[in-house]
Amino acid sequence: MANTYLFTGFPGFLASSLLKEMHHQSFPIERVYLLHLPIMKQQAHRQLQQLKESGINAGDIQLLEGDITKPDLGLDSNTSQSLKQEITHFFHLAALYDLAVPLSSAWKVNVKGTRMVNQWLHSCLSLQRYIYFSTAFVSGQREGIIYEEELTHEQGFKNHYEYTKYIAEQLVTQAQRELPTTIIRPGITVGHSRSGETLKFDGPYFILNMLGKLNKLPFVPHIGNSRAKINLVPYNYVVEATLHLAHFAEGLNKTYHLTDPNPYPAQDIYEMFSNELNNKEPHLTLPVPIASTALQLKWIRKWMGVQREAVSYFLCESEYDCTHTLYDLRKTDIRCPDFASYASHLVDYYKQHRDKKEKHVSIV
């Protein structure tokens, strides 16, 4: 039976990627609604046109102007009531993902927006699944093994993004009593494992920005000696796994870590990137306190292309258990590839596109 979908967060990269994969896998689709902010109207239409040109049949796709922070998702009453009769699968992808986002902005979108979505979904008569896109890093500053069924803690957070996603996931967990939910917690998402394609050079790509600058030195130093493991996952794994689990009967009211079951230590990732980008093996070690102090200076952050908030992810010794995910994917071909098998693709894509300003995030 064909389903009717609504995605928040269009024309974002994740919503577009999920839509492409749904059509690639020939999902039985009655209709797809893509919710976008009014100020994103031109970008939404442009992105939809690109999807058409990529071969997607856009006859079953409709753009909707709305705002998740408003009652009825900012839709007019008639449209809202009609959708509440139709929607079978709701993908809540809209969020502010910036690690440097101010608390007020993050709270409005990530927390208030999720609260409004939850309220709206309580009136959806045909809803089969509510897929909430969280993050593995709702674990905040917890260290050790983090399990999929765990959420509540008092260890604090590295930034406002983590904190507001944590509060938002609490709201979704509470709503599980009445809404058929599946919570997705990805690790740090990087480019496609085969093409290397990515929307933005953030997260671990800050290492590549920095290595590009350090390459001008006689040698490339290590930054600290942390053995913290960095959980990187290619976005194609996240997309494929999400779509399967969103339609998997046993996935009802479950939380999944879409994380690498065998992550590499930060130093190993740093060395792989250095070898691929600069053909240099790092030597000697620059202590983290010195690097962190340097990044307090705005001109150094901007010159190196590194967000100060990203440093903490290379020091926090957390490991994300993904037992439930692996078990529920066991009968599929969906696997998280080993980072070493696709690191070169990420670097090749970076080399080809690093001069494009739109690929880089703003450093403040």
Automatic annotation (TrEMBL):
Residues 8-241 form the Thioester reductase (TE) domain. It comes from the Bacteria. This is SDR family oxidoreductase. The lineage of its organism: Bacteria, Bacillati, Bacillota, Bacilli, Bacillales. It comes from Halobacillus salinarum.
